[in-house]
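Morning F.,

Quick status update on the modeling queue. The single chain you submitted on Monday has been processed. Sequence for confirmation:
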Amino acid sequence: MTDAPDIGVARVYDGPGDAQHARLLVDRLWPRGISKAGLALDDWIREVAPSTELRKWFGHDPDRWDEFRRRYHAELDASDEALERCLAWCRKGPVVLLYGAKDRDHNQAVVLRDYLRERLAREDAT
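Structure tokens below.
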């Protein structure tokens, strides 16, 4: 790949979006008020989400964002199987990482997108 992989992020409440993108839910918990049939997922990779402890500690507090990113990166480094599922989808084509949080800038899907892009770029460099 010469360009950055096409990995987007979207709230589950935003609607279906681009049909050309594989839709991956990356929350540990199913989002409130959304039916499983209505979400039209390709995969739910809950194991790649932050641990319950990290999620509760972060609490979507922007003041904890940098430390959350650091801790979540460490968890991702240790999550081989779930991370490989995400990477496999990214290698096939465009994906969108779905999340339920209200904050569009400070959520795990943003961190995961950047992490996946970095991993794929390292693969391409070798």
